[in-house]
Amino acid sequence: MIEIVNNSETTAKIHSKYGGVLGAFRNNTIWQYLKEKNMDPHSFEIATDNFLRSCAGYCVATYILGEF
């Protein structure tokens, strides 16, 4: 299942905003973005968990689709 998220930002835009030209090679660009958008610790924890789960789902889906 694919969900469309309106008003979302691409990872390329996040990496360039928080890490400059080499932002994709830094370890903390996504973390900084999530921290800025989720100020209180509980919402940051939820956002981090959601991001990790969506990355895992993306990896599994692309692996399965690549097999066919």
Notes on the structure:
- The chain has three helices and no strands.
- It is mainly alpha-helical and 68 residues long.
- It has one domain.
- The model has no long low-confidence stretch (mean pLDDT 91).
Broad structural category: mainly alpha
Q: What radius of gyration results from the CA coordinates?
A: 14 Å
Assign a percent range to the helix content.
Answer: 55-70%
Order of helices and strands: HHH
Largest sheet: none
Mean pLDDT rating: 91
Q: Tell me, what's the shape?
A: globular
Instruction: For the record, give the distance between the C-alpha atoms at the N and C termini, rounded to a whole number.
Output: 17 Å
Q: Give the number of domains.
A: 1
How many beta-strand elements? Answer: 0
The low-confidence runs, each spanning 5 or more residues with pLDDT under 50, are none
- The DSSP helix count reads 3
Which percent band covers the strand fraction? under 5%
